[in-house]
C-alpha cells in the first residue's frame, strides 16, 4: 500500500514527473502487480523448486527495487524509472499468493485456517502501519530516500526470517 499511497507523490515531488504521467505509471504498476500475482502463481505451480525459493526471489526483488527507487533522480531516464517501478510493482504486489500458499503447505492438517488467520492479521497490521510510518519518515527528513531505505530494511528482515523456514514436500 506504500506504492499506492506514495508513488505519485514521489514521482512528482522528487522526480518532477507530471501528475497525469504519474497516474498513468501507477495504473500500469497496478496492472503489472495484478498480472504478477497470477503469473507467479502459475510459475510457482509448475516449477519443481518449491514455494520458498520463488518467494525468496520475489522478496529479494522487492527489496532491491525499493533501494533502486530510492536512487532515482530527475535525471533518470523515464524508461528506467518505468522499468524499476514495474519490477517493484510485480514483486511488492505479487508475493502474497506465494506466501499464503507456503503457509498452508507448512501448516499441520486442520490448522490451515488458524495459521492463515494469524498470518492475515499480522500482514494487515503491516498494511495499516506501513504507509503512515513511511509518511512520517518522509515528513521528518523532508525526503523520500530514508523512507525507501527503511522499507528495504523491513523487506530484508522478512527475507532473513524466510531463510529460516524449513519447507516441507507438498502434500
Shape designation: globular
Question: Helix-strand pattern, N to C?
Answer: HHHHHHH
How many helices? The count is 7
Number of strands: 0
Please outline the major beta sheet: none
Give the uncertain stretches in residue-range form: none
**Helical percent range?**
over 70%
Structural class: mainly alpha
Using only C-alpha atoms, the radius of gyration works out to: 17 Å
Q: Into which percentage range does the β-strand content fall? A: under 5%
Beginning-to-end CA distance, first to last residue: 33 Å
On the 0 to 100 scale, the average pLDDT is 91
Describe, in plain words, how this protein is organized in 3D.
The protein is mainly alpha-helical and 171 residues long. It has seven helices and no strands. The protein has helices at residues 2-13, 19-46, 51-71, 78-92, 96-106, 112-141, 145-163. α2 crosses α4 (78-92) and α5 (96-106) runs antiparallel to α6.
SSE layout and pairings?
Elements lengths: L1 H12 L5 H28 L4 H21 L6 H15 L3 H11 L5 H30 L3 H19 L8
For this entry, give a set of tags.
single chain, 171 residues, mainly alpha, 7 helices
Summarize the structure.
With 171 residues, the chain is mainly alpha-helical. Helices cover 80% and strands 0% of the residues.
